[in-house]
Design a protein that fits this description.
mainly alpha; 0% strand; elongated; TPR-like_helical_dom_sf
C-alpha cells in the first residue's frame, strides 16, 4: 500500500542533499541514499524521490536475499511496497522468501490475492516454485493456490505419475508425462523423471535429459544428485562433493558405498577448499585399504616431491628403510629443494640398484638418465644420454640431442656419423632422423644421398615442406656441381626435378638463377648475363646483396663473375637499407660452410658496407645480429667498423666488447692496458644492468688474455700424480689442487686425471665455465660464482670434482667444501677488477 505523504515543514531542503542522495544511489550505496531520500520527503512529497526510495528498499532486499538472508529481505521488500506504485516488482521472490522462513501467514495471505489468470500469465516462475512445493508436500500450500490455475490442473497428472513411480508401474508413467504441455510448471520434473526411467539402460540419454534442466531451476539440485549417481571413480567424487550432506548420503546409500568410503568422502569434503599436499598425503595413507596399497604408494611417492616432510611416514607405511625406493624418495626430495647435485647422487644409486633387476627395469633406467640430462648443460648431459640409449635404443629425442651436440657444441664429424647411423638403424622411418640425415649429406656434398633421404621423407609425409625444401636444395646443389664439372647434359634434368616440387616462388627463382648460369657456361657466355642479373635483383632487397649472392654462386659453379657484375648496379657509393643488412646477415649464415667464398664476396661490397656503418641508419637489434655473425665468422675488419660507430650511439657494454674484440682481431693476447680498462668498465656496467651473459663473455675474454688453457703438464697417466702439476703464468696454483686432493689414493687420482683431460679436450674453458654456472647457479650466488670462475685454480678443482663424480669415485670432498675453501682465502681478481 502506498505510504501517506509526510507533512511539509516550512524550511526548504538543501539542494546539495538531493545531489548527495543521487550520488549514493548511482554508486549502489542504497542504505545511505534511502536515509537522505526519507529526509527529503519530510520536506516535499516529490514523486521522483518516492520512486528512488522504493528502489533503494528493493535493491537492498535483493542484496540480502543473495547473501542468504531471506527474513531480512522480506522486511525490506515490505518497506519497498509501501513506497512503490503497482505493479510491484519481485512479488514472487517475496512470497518465496516468506515460505523459506516458514512465515506462512504472510505468504499465504499474498498468495490468496493472486487469481488463476494472474498466476498463469504474470507469475510463471512463481508457478514453477509452487509446483515444486507441491511435489515436496509443503504443509498447507495446496489450499492457497488457485484451483483453476494451470499448475493445479497439471498437478493432478503429476500426482498420478508420482504414485505410479512409487508403486513401480513404470509403463504408465510415460503416458501420464506426455499429457503435460511443453510450458508446464512441471516441465523440469518431467525431464527428471524421464532421466530416472532411462537408467540404467541409457546413461547417455539420462545425461541429455538432465542437461536440459536450467541451473536456476528448483529441480537442479536433484538433477545434480542423479548425475553424481551415474558417475564412477574420480568423476563421482567431484560430483558428490558438490552435493548437500543429506543428498550425498542418499546417493552413497543408493550406490551401496561402505561406511569407510562415505567417511573418506566426508573427510575430503571438510578439507575440500584447503586440500593441501600434506592433507592429500595423509588421506592416501589413512585410506590406503580403499585406494589399494600399490596405488596409494605410487601417489605418496609422487607427493613426496611436493611434501618432503612425509618421507618418514611413507617409509613407515610403504617401504623398508634400506629399500631402493628410499634412494628414489631422497632424489625427489632434493630436487624439490633445488639441490640437483645431491639428487643426482641418489638417482645414480637408484639406477645401480635397478640394473640388478634385469630387462624389466631398462625403460625406467633410461628415463632416469634422460631426466638427469635435462638439468645439465649439453657437455655434461651427453654421457647420460648415451647411457640411456643402452637401455632404450629407440628414443628419438636422445639421438637428436646427441647429434646436435656433435654438430654444434663439440663438432666431431666421425661421432656425428656414428650416432646418425645408429639412429637411422633403430628409427629408419622417423621424420626428424631423416631430416638430420639429409642435412648431414648436404654438408658432405653427398647430394644424391641427401636427395634419397628427402625422397624417403616425402614417402612418409607427402606434404612435408622441409622435405621438399631439402630435396629442392639437393637437386640445385647437384646441378651446381654438374655445371662446375661441365657435365652440362645432366643439369637440366636436376633443375626440372627441382621445379616439379611444389615450392614457393622465392625458391623457384633460385632454380632460374642456376639455369641462367648453366646457359651462360654451356651455350652462350654472353646471352644470359642480363637474365642472371635480373634474377639476382629480383631475389635480393638491394644491389649489395645481389652482388654478394652472385659472386658466391659464380664461384660455386666456376663461372666468371666479372661479366655478371657489369650487369648489376654499381654499389661503390651505395648505402644498404635495414632489410638488406638483415638479408645479408641471413645469407652469410646460409653460405656459412663456404667461409672462404663468403669473405671474398664481402670484399666485393666492403665499400658500401663501411659507408653504411658510418651512417648507421639501423636499429640496435639489427646491428647486434650483424656483429654476432661477424664475430662468429671472424671478420674483424667489418666488425670494427660497426662496433666503433655503434659504441658511440648505444650504451650497452656489448658494444665495448665487440669493439675491443675487433681491435684485437679476436686474439686476447693483444689486449693492452687501455683496452683492459675499457673492458673492466664494461663489466661494471653489465653487472649493474644485470646482463650476466655479456659480463661473462667479457670476463672470459680478459681471462684468456692471461693464457690459461691447460693447467696440467702431464703426458701420461703417471705424470699426473708422480710429477705433480706444472705451474704456468695463468694464476693457476698447483699447491691448491694438491692440497685439496692429497687425501685421494693415487690409483683414483690417475683415473680422475684421465677423465679430467678428456673433459678438457671435449670442451673449451668457456664452455666448461658456462656448464658450471648452469649446474650450480642455484646453490651459489651467481655473482660470486662468476668471480670464483675467474680463478683458474677454482675451475680446475671443480672440473676434477666433476670428473670424480662421473666416474662414481668417492673422494670425500663436496662442492660446498670447495666453495668454502676458495671463499675463505683471498679471492682471485684481475688488475683493475671493480669487485
Amino acid at each position: 500500500m502506498k505510504k501517506a505523504s509526510q507533512k511539509a515543514p516550512s524550511a526548504a531542503p538543501d539542494a546539495s542533499l538531493e545531489k548527495n542522495a543521487s550520488s549514493h544511489f548511482s554508486a549502489g550505496r542504497y542504505k545511505n541514499a534511502a536515509e537522505i531520500y526519507k529526509n527529503l520527503l519530510k520536506h516535499s512529497d516529490n514523486p521522483d524521490w518516492r520512486k528512488k526510495l522504493a528502489e533503494c528498499y528493493l535493491q537492498r532486499a535483493l542484496n540480502m536475499a543473495e547473501k542468504g538472508m531471506p527474513k531480512e529481505a522480506a522486511v525490506l521488500w515490505e518497506n519497498y511496497s509501501e513506497w512503490a506504485e503497482p505493479p510491484l516488482a519481485a512479488l514472487e521472490a517475496y512470497i518465496l522468501w516468506l515460505l523459506s522462513v516458514k512465515n506462512t501467514e504472510k505468504a499465504f495471505a499474498r498468495l490468496d490475492r493472486i487469481d488463476a489468470e494472474q498466476l498463469d500469465k504474470n507469475h510463471p516462475e512463481l508457478a514453477v516454485w509452487l509446483g515444486f512445493l507441491l511435489v515436496c508436500e509443503y504443509p498447507g500450500i495446496e489450499a492457497h493456490i488457485p484451483h483453476d490455475s494451470a499448475v493445479m490442473l497439471h498437478w493432478q497428472t503429476v500426482r498420478e505419475a508420482l504414485e505410479a513411480y512409487r508403486s513401480n508401474r513404470l509403463d504408465h508413467i510415460d503416458e501420464l508425462l506426455k499429457k503435460l504441455p511443453f510450458r508446464s510448471a512441471f516441465r523440469d520434473l518431467r525431464s527428471l523423471l524421464k532421466a530416472q526411467l532411462s537408467l540404467p539402460a541409457s546413461i547417455e540419454q539420462a545425461h541429455t535429459l538432465l542437461s536440459k534442466i536450467p541451473d536456476n531451476s528448483s529441480y537442479r539440485p536433484t538433477a545434480n544428485a542423479l548425475m553424481a549417481y551415474m558417475f564412477q571413480g574420480s568423476a563421482f567424487v567431484e560430483a558428490a562433493l558438490q552435493l548437500e550432506d543429506s543428498q550425498r548420503r542418499l546417493i552413497a546409500k543408493a550406490k551401496d558405498l561402505s561406511n569407510k568410503q562415505l567417511e573418506l568422502l566426508d573427510a575430503i569434503d571438510k578439507q575440500h577448499n584447503n586440500l593441501t599436499d600434506k592433507a592429500q598425503f595423509n588421506l592416501a595413507i589413512r585410506y590406503r585399504e580403499l585406494i589399494g596399497n600399490e596405488a596409494a604408494s605410487r601417489f605418496c611417492q609422487a607427493m613426496l616431491a611436493r611434501y618432503p616432510a612425509g618421507r618418514k611416514d611413507y617409509l613407515k607405511n610403504f617401504a623398508a628403510k634400506n629399500s631402493i625406493e628410499s634412494e628414489r624418495i631422497q632424489a625427489l626430495i632434493h630436487e624439490e629443494n633445488h639441490d640437483n647435485f645431491e639428487a643426482e647422487d641418489h638417482w645414480l644409486r637408484y639406477i645401480e640398484a635397478l640394473k640388478t633387476q634385469g630387462p624389466e627395469s631398462h625403460k625406467k633406467i633410461a628415463l632416469i638418465y634422460r631426466h638427469l640430462a635435462q638439468n645439465l648443460s649439453p657437455t655434461m648431459a651427453i654421457d647420460f644420454l648415451i647411457e640411456s640409449l643402452q637401455y632404450d635404443p629407440e628414443d628419438r629425442d636422445s639421438y637428436l640431442k646427441i647429434l646436435d651436440y656433435f654438430e654444434q657444441e663439440y663438432p666431431d664429424p666421425e661421432e656425428h656419423a656414428i650416432w646418425l647411423a645408429k639412429g637411422l638403424k633403430h628409427l629408419p622411418k622417423d621424420i626428424e632422423m631423416l631430416v638430420c640425415a639429409a642435412k648431414s649429406a648436404m654438408r658432405k656434398k653427398a647430394f644424391k644421398k641427401a636427395a634419397k633421404y628427402a625422397q624417403d621423407l616425402l614417402k612418409i609425409d607427402p606434404v612435408n615442406t622441409l622435405a621438399k625444401e631439402l630435396l629442392f636444395s639437393s637437386h640445385l646443389a647437384h646441378a651446381r656441381k654438374l655445371i662446375k664439372t661441365q657435365k652440362f647434359h645432366l643439369v637440366e634434368k636436376e633443375l626440372q626435378a627441382a621445379e616439379q616440387l611444389s615450392i614457393d616462388k622465392t625458391l623457384l627463382r633460385q632454380a632460374d638463377l642456376i639455369r641462367g648460369f648453366y646457359i651462360c657456361a654451356a651455350e652462350d657466355k654472353d646471352r644470359d648475363l642480363k637474365a642472371i642479373a635480373d634474377t639476382l635483383q629480383s631475389m635480393n632487397p638491394g644491389p649489395a646483396t645481389a652482388h654478394f649472392q652472385g659472386f658466391i654462386e659464380s664461384a660455386l659453379m666456376d663461372v666468371p663473375y666479372a661479366p655478371i657484375a657489369k650487369q648489376l648496379p654499381a654499389v661503390k657509393a651505395y648505402e644498404l637499407s635495414e632489410p638488406e643488412l638483415l638479408h645479408l646477415t641471413e645469407s652469410i649464415e646460409r653460405y656459412g660452410e663456404q667461409l672462404d667464398l663468403v669473405f671474398k664476396a664481402l670484399d666485393k661490397i666492403k665499400a658500401p658496407l663501411k659507408k653504411s656503418m658510418k651512417l648507421l641508419n639501423y636499429g640496435e637489434q639489427v646491428l647486434l645480429a650483424w656483429c654476432q655473425t661477424l664475430e662468429q665468422i671472424e671478420h674483424f675488419d667489418l666488425l670494427k667498423q660497426c662496433a666503433k660507430s655503434a659504441d658511440g650511439v648505444w650504451e650497452k657494454p656489448i658494444w665495448s666488447y665487440y669493439r675491443v674484440v675487433a681491435e684485437c682481431q679476436g686474439d686476447p693476447s693483444r689486449l693492452d692496458i687501455t683496452w683492459t680498462l675499457r673492458l673492466q668498465n664494461a663489466i661494471e656496467i653489465a653487472h649493474e644492468q644485470k646482463d650476466s651473459k655479456t659480463e661473462f663473455k667479457i670476463r672470459r675474454f680478459i681471462e684468456r688474455s692471461i693464457g690459461f688453457q691447460n693447467p696440467f703438464g702431464f703426458d701420461d697417466e703417471d705424470d699426473f700424480y708422480e710429477d705433480g702439476f706444472d705451474e704456468d703464468e695463468s694464476g693457476f696454483d698447483p699447491d691448491i689442487i694438491e692440497g685439496l686432493f692429497d687425501h685421494v689414493p693415487k690409483r683414483n687420482m690417475i683415473k680422475i686425471g684421465k677423465k679430467f683431460e678428456e673433459m678438457m679436450n671435449k670442451s673449451s674453458p668457456e664452455q666448461l665455465m658456462m656448464d658450471v654456472m648452469t649446474k650450480y647457479a642455484e646453490r651459489v650466488d651467481p655473482n660470486q660464482l662468476v668471480g670464483l670462475l675467474m680463478d683458474p685454480s677454482f675451475l680446475v678443482a671443480i672440473m676434477m670434482f666433476e670428473a670424480a663424480q662421473s666416474l662414481r669415485i668417492d673422494i670425500d670432498l663436496s662442492f660446498d667444501e670447495i666453495i668454502e675453501f676458495f671463499t675463505d682465502d683471498e679471492p682471485f681478481s684481475f688488475p683493475f677488477d671493480p669487485y
